[in-house]
Amino acid sequence: MEEIIVDDKYKIHFSKELIDIFKIKPKDRFQIKIENKNKIVLEKVNKAKKEKDPLMDILDTPAHVNIDKIKQINLNNVEEELWTT
Length: 85
Fold this sequence. Notes:
It is built from four helices and two strands. The protein is an alpha+beta fold.
């Protein structure tokens, strides 16, 4: 089992070996599960399973704006969501 150290900013860093095995890339997401109060399990979130809202996709990656995705956004629904929350 590999040991990982938490740094001063409470971040953990994966070894090159783990990065290669699990194909970890910057901004990959993980779910955290806690078991028995002393065990933390990280599970990589599969991007294909989770369909993203077009507006949130644009906000997450503004440098890669796709005009077709912008056209999919229904501004009336966005406005209605803003007023109801």
